[in-house]
Amino acid sequence: MGVALLGWCSLPPKRTCTFILKVVSSGSGAIVSGSCIWCGLTQLGSIQASSSKLICGEPVSDRGGKMAAPALSGRAGSAGSLGNSPTIATGRLPHGGGVGPELDFRSAARMEDLNRLIQEFSKHDQREYDDQRALEIHTAKDFIFSMLGMVQKLDQKLPVANEYLLLSGGIREGVVDMDLDELSVYARGTDYDMDFTLLVPALKLHDRNQPVTLDMRHSALGHSWLSLRLFDEGTINKWKDCCTIVDHINGTTNYFFSPTLVADWFYQSISLVLLEVQKKPQRGMPRVEKVERNGTIISVILGVGSSRMLYDIVPVVSFKGWPAVAQSWLMENHFWDGKITEEEVISGFYLVPACSYKGRKENEWRLSFARSEVQLKKCISSSLMQAYQACKAIIIKLLSRPKAISPYHLRSIMLWACDRLPANYLAQDDFSGHFLLGLIDDLQHCLVNKMCPNYFIPQCNMLEHLSDETAMLHARKLSSVRSDPAEHLRTTIEHAKAANRLTVELQWRGSSNNLPSPQSDASGENQPDDRLAKKLQQLVTENPGKSISVFINPDDVTRPHFRIDDKFF
């Protein structure tokens, strides 16, 4: 039987590996094998009897049967700035009984238990759509798009042929980089059953022939003012009342598109349209349960049958091409290289109505790469996404007050981790526990150092405004999670179960009270197209969690065209 030794690898990677070594043959220059407790790299080599240093070696297959790759060295301003997670160890049974279960060094949690808990959370967190629910989703979507068509007809401000981006998950879920301070607290199960974010372009600038240069002279990095000089005279005249005006010495006048004034107009227009619609209710039409302005976001909760759907509707400015401030990011190597094309990643970006910590709310917009993130999501392994969703659920509850940390920060950390770590490591199905601990470690590292670089604009530090006191408060909270991740996962699972129970109870009450549903409309004029409903059901089943771009003609809202990722329908 071999003897267990602890050795330090002298081979690449440059980052030190720590091995549990097992002597295969004894004597001077003994042959040993071992697995690194950090990255799982397995090697054969020789070791001197009086030393514990691995002299030479060749990599052998890891436990999954694939070649274990060395960890990647960090790049300046990106992966290396987030640190690593050196707290996973292989346990050993007492009295030399062989290698025991894999443990987390910090909390002593068994990795297989963490994997199991993450799987259980994913099961309860996933939305299951039956025929009725699929039809309700389609009815709510149809209602929202018809409402926007009516908004366009009010004063012709919105583009006639518009392209919306529909994202699965609300703003509170971190699907878009926006501040959460001014948002009302909504909870799944209590207030809604499903949530979506809809980006609605108020203006479009779709010239793809050159990099887009924005006026960032007055703004923090990653933010911009928007002059209407980029647009034609007709557009300026339409939107003058939603602009701040700057008169120059030479007598010219510059109109700056104001996110707060645009949000004012958008909320008033939506409220007016919904008021008119509710004056003439039709059977099967969704119930408008709430319309609320949260900062520059309009939140609408619809009741359809027994389902409640939250739509966070955001007025944005849409651009084709890529901003000049992010051009250097394209020069770097990324995890998605070779998996999707650069053209898919840089197809466009948005300005969303959010300002920097010291910016002027009435003038400043924030760059958003939501369209690119939809494409990048296709390159992330399911086990990492499960760990991210579980970690997000934990921090939403834990770090809700004060609202210094958004789930979007965690999303950025995950993207940096994808750039930093080998693809075959991230693809391992049974490593979701490792990924969860790594995300917690990286987020805590970001808080302690008050440094979280934006993935697309690495020179933009998204935590620069944090006070030392707030950063350390959240870091200490994360430390408690790191000390007992299994217990926090169990709590998160119970929250998911409770939300599901509330949803089921409300659905049961709705069915017992004979609440109107889309299928209860017997008139041919308002009856939803069964073929479209069946197609939608198929798309939802085949594309869980994917995002949808929608093309709508307000003059004919009965024929919506929509895209799920890169598929058109």
TrEMBL record:
PANTHER family xrefs: CELL FATE DETERMINING PROTEIN MAB21-RELATED (PTHR10656), NUCLEOTIDYLTRANSFERASE MB21D2 (PTHR10656:SF47)
Source species, domain of life: Eukaryota
Domain Mab-21-like HhH/H2TH-like: 403-478
Ranges of Polar residues composition bias in the record: 510-526
InterPro entries noted in UniProt: Mab-21-like_nuc_Trfase (IPR046903), Mab-21_HhH/H2TH-like (IPR046906), MAB21L/cGLR (IPR024810)
Protein name per UniProt: Mab-21 domain containing 2
Renumbered residue ranges of the record's region Disordered: 510-529
Domain Mab-21-like nucleotidyltransferase: 218-376
Pfam families registered for this protein in UniProt: Mab-21 (PF03281), Mab-21_C (PF20266)
Family: Belongs to the mab-21 family.
